[in-house]
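cron nightly-structures :: item 1 of 1
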Amino acid sequence: MPFNRTIKVLVMDDEELIRSYCSFTLSYLGHKFQVACNGEEALLAYQYGLAVGEPFDAAILDIGIPGGMGGEETIRRLIQIDPGVKAIVSSGYHGSPLMVEYREHGFKAALPKPYSAQELTDALSKVLV
């Protein structure tokens, strides 16, 4: 396990394959997780975690969510809820301004799709130092 403790990660992605992959990987590594299909679900999950005293250690947010709130709006709202949020932006559009200039948008790391279990772990390690 790459961390000295169990971490809790929120994974927001519209692709079921990505949500399943992250769920499997995080579970295999012994971590807790929750998945969301869009920003609205992610915000509710994040707020609930804070309310019950079980906050997320990190969030992975997909930029593009067809028909829903994507990562750019979600991070703005998460920062309002928790200025210390440790969020990772994820996208298959590697040249997207959000992926290139992620820090300027409130993200702590970028995770280009497709990514391996090691790349996922490395991104989480980067934001949880």
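cron nightly-structures :: done
The first strand starts at residue 8 and ends at 12.
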